[in-house]
Structure to design on (521 residues):
């Protein structure tokens, strides 16, 4: 069969008009507000601000707080909970709640809000959320009184304290509503460090003001304007024109600001990795799932890193490689080796056609991969990988688009992260789990990830996850390429960002200590 050459559909973005932002168009709601103490953050687009629906997003975490929170070392510590106990005999967590917490509308926060939030996560099958599999081990949640909540577990879950960091939603505003479509999602009321003021859709920004009644340390910065700018190019433009004070950019754009006294580069370590993730619901991978792992032999991962991320990334072999429970070198099975690639392809029954492209059972090794047009580093990674594969006889045809429907493609250039507990991979990789949008299924992986979350002994857990890394490497749902650092750029007057925290997917978590930040313009 004749193979089609890859083509790239390039989506051009109009940048200048998209990022126009000035102090005059920020609605302060209070003429006395000092705009010199207003932080303008250029972040990715959001459609909802609701902790039940959102993952770990910086905007959501500014407005809401959970029973627990993560400290600088990603350990869960008390937040809305004043203290907690766990009884292994009865498999129950008992949380004693703070009594000094109010919702941003002045209502008292109580145990009933906790019960409401977790009952939605456990029992509401209609919610469009990727995180519900994180809570499937909870049997029941009960309020003993206004400030005591008991969680009864079906079985132990070693990652549970991490998942108790989920923000709590207000029962008095959401009870009886469709969580997916509630107006609350664009007008949120939380218990967090910042209050929602306005969603200015005309200027694509959310305006927050500090919560002076916050039960913890009140932030120094009065207001945060979260400007929705999806394109990394446009975020860089916003920085360079003075229309943003802080933004996550990629390694390439970060380099353009280094050494410029008008800016500050702030580089975080990140658990964010890039990979080609296969859609096992597509016809191609239904027939050829046995041929995912072998692709890694044909890709020089270090060359990809050097070309796109410079020293701000490194070659990857495992989706939990950076976890204290991961990093099993025995899982690093696919060093760049084109001779090995061709031998393994022959073992799998692939033969090169007259055009130099591998084929099997009358089908070319040709699959379509979506790439997000708003992330230039993904486009660069995908193009390099595609070129490498084509040279060895595999066509990865790229479709670079801003919007996409997963059903149309065989794969996409993915990013994931497990910056906290390795159980974060459970929802992505377990058969039928809430975040497993690519329909990956492997009974051995299912068992190991279930065993890992239910094993309480640290050393035994580590052994389980090391085994998972090897088993997954043998039959992966993606071929992982590299880990990347989180490269932020700010104005020089922004101080206090703590780089001790390893950040997550799309550099999430940068504002974990925002109450310590100071701003001088």
């Amino acid at each position: 069969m004749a193979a089609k050459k890859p083509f790239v559909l390039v989506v051009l973005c109009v940048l200048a008009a998209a990022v126009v932002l000035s102090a005059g168009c920020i609605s302060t709601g209070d003429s006395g507000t000092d705009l010199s103490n207003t932080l303008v953050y250029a972040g990715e687009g959001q459609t909802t601000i609701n902790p039940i629906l959102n993952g770990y997003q910086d905007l959501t975490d500014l407005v809401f707080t959970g029973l627990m929170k993560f400290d600088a070392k990603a350990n869960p510590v008390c937040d809305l909970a004043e203290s907690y106990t766990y009884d292994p005999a009865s498999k129950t967590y008992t949380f004693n709640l703070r009594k000094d917490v109010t919702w941003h509308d002045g209502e008292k926060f109580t145990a009933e809000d906790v019960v409401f939030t977790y009952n939605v996560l456990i029992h509401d099958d209609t919610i469009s959320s990727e995180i519900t599999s994180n809570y499937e081990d909870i049997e029941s949640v009960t309020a003993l009184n206004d400030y005591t909540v008991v969680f009864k577990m079906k079985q132990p879950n070693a990652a549970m304290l991490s998942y108790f960091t989920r923000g709590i939603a207000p029962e008095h505003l959401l009870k009886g509503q469709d969580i997916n479509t509630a107006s609350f999602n664009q007008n949120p009321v939380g218990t967090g460090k910042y209050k929602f003021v306005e969603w200015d859709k005309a200027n694509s920004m959310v305006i927050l003001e500090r919560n002076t009644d916050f039960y913890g340390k009140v932030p120094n910065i009065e207001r945060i304007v979260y400007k929705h700018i999806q394109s990394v190019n446009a975020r860089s433009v916003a920085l360079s024109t003075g229309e943003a004070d802080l933004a996550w950019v990629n390694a390439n754009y970060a380099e353009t600001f280094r050494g410029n006294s008008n800016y500050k580069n702030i580089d975080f370590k990140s658990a964010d990795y890039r990979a080609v993730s296969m859609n096992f619901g597509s016809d191609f991978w239904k027939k050829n799932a046995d041929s995912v792992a072998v692709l890694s032999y044909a890709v020089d991962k270090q060359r990809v890193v050097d070309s796109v991320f410079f020293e701000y990334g490194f070659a990857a072999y495992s989706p939990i490689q950076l976890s204290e429970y991961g990093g099993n070198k025995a899982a690093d099975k696919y060093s760049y080796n084109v001779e090995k690639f061709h031998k393994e392809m022959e073992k799998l029954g692939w033969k090169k056609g007259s055009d130099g492209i591998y084929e099997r059972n009358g089908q070319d090794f040709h699959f379509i991969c979506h790439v997000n047009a708003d992330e230039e580093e993904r486009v660069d990674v995908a193009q390099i990988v595609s070129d490498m594969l084509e040279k060895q006889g595999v066509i990865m045809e790229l479709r670079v688009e801003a919007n996409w429907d997963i059903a149309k493609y065989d794969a996409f250039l993915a990013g994931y992260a497990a910056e906290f507990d390795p159980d974060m991979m459970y929802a992505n990789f377990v058969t039928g789990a809430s975040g497993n949008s690519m329909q990956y299924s492997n009974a051995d992986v299912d068992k190991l990830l279930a065993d890992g979350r239910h094993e309480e002994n640290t050393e035994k857990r580590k052994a389980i996850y090391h085994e998972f890394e090897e088993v997954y490497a043998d039959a992966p749902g993606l071929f992982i390429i590299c880990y990347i650092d989180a490269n932020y750029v700010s104005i020089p007057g922004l101080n206090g960002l703590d780089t001790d925290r390893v950040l997550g997917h799309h550099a999430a978590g940068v504002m974990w200590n925002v109450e310590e930040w100071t701003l001088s313009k």
In short: The two ends are 63 Å apart (CA to CA). The longest helix spans residues 458-474. Confidence is low (pLDDT under 50) at residues 1-25, 27-33. The chain has 13 helices and 24 strands.
